[in-house]
Amino acid sequence: DIQLTQSPSTLSASVGDRVTITCRASQSIRSWLAWYQQKPGKAPKLLIYKASSLESGVPSRFSGSGSGTEFTLTISSLQPDDFATYYCQQYNSYRSFGQGTRVEIK
Amino acid sequence: EVQLVESGGGLVQPGGSLRLSCAASGFTFSRHWMSWVRQAPGKGLEWVAYIRHGGSQADYVDSVKGRFTISRDDARNSLYLQMNSLTVEDTAVYYCARDVIGGTDGGQMDHWGQGTLVTVSS
């Protein structure tokens, strides 16, 4: 089974900050990685797929990069609506999620 | 507009069974793989199972193998999850999610339902 490890688990940031979240896979998953945003009581929302492709309708301040075993999600300028929990998900072999990164107000 | 609406959640005793349903609309359901994902209270997301287009193959996370069965009825645009031998560890919100179009590369889940809560407790 492929394990995904996100870091940090919690991130404190201010509006306007550049934020980076890392996702590491236990083995190569090529570029088969997605990123999701989830707010309390809501379903996850797809942000990025195939490591770096922006889902339609998602603001361009979100970007993804990486391949193989190391990936990053970057928010170029954090907005009030971006305080949420973020998950990576691999689909190279079955499906699995990282444990999540909570982005909170500093 | 793509819509996924789950139903069937509720309170069940340990060892009991429950069948979840997901009604899909707004897209060609038969072309897509479909997944179930769950989230225990205060915890992260866990993929549970997927079923390929045409229902030809399904796969499961190890913790539910032999207890859960995913199925689909393309004529009714519906996805199901039969859950047997439930334990307290199965307590979670269960989401259905639209997965990849069959025959293409991918596996991101681009549309999700609102979720249905399953509580396993005596």
Q: What's the alpha carbon Rg of chain A, rounded to whole Å?
A: 13 Å
Q: Stretches of chain B where pLDDT falls below 50 for ≥5 residues?
A: none
Mean pLDDT, all residues of chain A: 97
Largest sheet of chain A: 7 strands, mixed
User: Quick check: average pLDDT of chain B?
Assistant: 96
Helix content of chain B: under 10%
Percent helix of chain A, as a range, is under 10%
| Coarse shape of chain B | globular
Strand content of chain B: over 45%
Distance between the termini of chain B: 40 Å
Q: Given the helix and strand composition of chain B, which structural class is it?
A: mainly beta
Summarize this structure as a short list of keywords or feature phrases.
heterodimer; A: 106 residues; mainly beta; 7-stranded mixed beta sheet; 4-stranded antiparallel beta sheet; globular; B: 122 residues; 11 strands; 0% helix
Task: Tell me about this structure.
The complex is a heterodimer of chains A (106) and B (122). Chain A is mainly beta and 106 residues long. Chain A is 0% helix and 50% strand. Chain A is built from no helices and eleven strands. In chain A, strand 5 (45-49) and strand 6 (53-54) form a beta hairpin. The termini of chain A are far apart. Chain B is mainly β and 122 residues long. Chain B contains no helices and eleven strands. In chain B, strands 2, 4, 5, 6, 9, 10 and 11 form a seven-stranded mixed beta sheet that branches. Chain B has a four-stranded antiparallel beta sheet with strand order 1-3-8-7, with no helix packed on it. In chain B, a hairpin with a 4-residue loop joins strand 7 and strand 8. The model of chain B has no long low-confidence stretch (mean pLDDT 96). At the A-B interface, strand 4, strand 5, strand 9 and strand 10 of A face strand 5 of B.
